[in-house]
Each structure stands twice: as C-alpha cells, then as structure tokens.
C-alpha cells in the first residue's frame, strides 16, 4: 500500500517468507489476483512457475491498464470497456487436469497494444507510460532466442555493402523487428527500466499534464451481458517508428553487425 506521504506499507504479512534469492522466492502455492497476474504464470499452470520481479512489473502494467479503462478519460463506451475487461482480465478456461488457464490475451495485448491503441487515452503521459512499458514487457513473449538466431543468420549471410543492399530491398523491418525484440529483452533484464520510463515522463518539460486528468465514473453494471461480445479489434504488431526503424539508421545496423 502507498501512504498519503508517498511511502510504502507492506501488507499480506501472513504470506511473507524469508528471501534467499531476490528474484524468484515465493510461497509454493500460487498467490495473486487472477486479473492482474503476469501472462506467463497463467498460460502453463502445469509448470507451477514461481513469479519473479519482472512478473510483478507486468502485474503493475495490467493493473494500470485496468485503472485506465475504468476511471480515466478515453474514447470507449461502457460496453466496450466491459468487453475488454472480460477478454484481458477475467478470461479463464481449464486444461485437461482441471487447472485454470489464461493469459493468452494478455501476452498478445503486450505485443500488439491493440486495445490500448483503440482506447484513445486522453492523458499523454499515461499513454506514454503504458505504451513504452508494454514494448519492453512484450519482449518476454517475442522469443529472445529466435531474435538472436535471426540476427546471427543475417550477420553471417550479409556483410558490409551487401548487408546495406539487403536492407534497401525491403528487409529493414524484418531485421529491426528482431533487433528491437532482442534489445528490449536486454532492457528487461535490468532492474530499473520501468523507473526510467517514469523518470523520462516526469522530467520531460513537454509533457502535457492538463489534458485528460479528470476521473470518469463509469457504471458498468448497466451493460447487458448479451451485449458484451464485441467484434475483434484488428491486431497488428506495433513496431515503434523510432529513428531506428523506417529511416534504416545504418549506425545502429553497423553497431549490431560489429557486435
């Protein structure tokens, strides 16, 4: 819990245990709120995975998105809000052993940001935090090994001007998608990447704190249950259009080739 003075107060003392490894210690039984648990913990319950600090950061992201859906200014009507909550947070099925399974929609949302993009969040800093955090967290589900394998293959197959020719013939996005997946995964391994995202937003003099700062009370209880199914939102992989992407910044390419 966060106090009014901004300090933290630990709760759930009855579930606490001595920490030996700062990364993966947890009770043997699964704990946590289903709606906000990391996708990887829900997809394969038979593995009985223990949550680590990155799972906690992902849970924070899901919680922040949920709060944004419920109470922040955006373009969605209550029917669509209920649909997204049902798909992303409440969705649950069972495996052959009767164990609850979920998380697939969560991992896909991190990779595509389809629902996030459809919301039209009015607050620029909130949208920036959700978007930038999702890009890093998505690397958990993009396949680091596959990205490294593809980068290695390209480095061995094309060198120097031949590689530049390869990029200029329509393959830039393919290479950079793999490169960004790999780079984001390296960022994910650090302990303070999300803190840096918040710092960047808080310290940016261009941040607009006035727009979209209101609280919206949405009465979702009035949404008819038979209207909760919405047509699927178009899902495309959201490759960030940074200086490393469309312009095929060869400095970045050269750094990777030389690495």
Count of beta strands: 2
Give the % helix.
40-55%
What global shape is seen? globular
Strand order in space, largest sheet: 1-2
Distance between the termini: 44 Å
Overall domain count: 1
Discrete helix count = 10
> Would you tell me the structural class of the helices and strands?
mainly alpha
Indicate the radius of gyration in whole angstroms: 21 Å
Outline the low-pLDDT stretches.
Answer: 231-259
Tell me the series of helices and strands, N- to C-terminal. HHHEEHHHHHHH
Strand content: under 5%
* Biggest β-sheet description: 2 strands, antiparallel
The whole-number mean of residue pLDDT values reads 78
Pfam families: Pkinase_fungal
Domain Fungal-type protein kinase: 5-67
Organism: Hebeloma cylindrosporum
Protein name: Fungal-type protein kinase domain-containing protein
What's this, in brief?
By secondary structure, the chain is mainly alpha-helical. It is 49% helix and 2% strand. The protein has 10 helices and 2 strands.
Q: What can you tell me about this protein's structure?
A:
With 259 residues, the chain is an all-alpha fold. It has one domain (33-258). The chain has helices at residues 39-43, 53-71, 78-90, 104-112, 114-119, 124-137, 144-157, 160-188, 193-202, 250-258; strands at 93-94, 100-101. Strands 1-2 form a two-stranded antiparallel sheet. A hairpin with a 5-residue loop joins β1 (93-94) and β2. α2 packs antiparallel against α6 and α6 (124-137) packs antiparallel against α9. The protein is globular, with a radius of gyration of 21 Å. Residues 231-259 have low confidence and may be disordered.
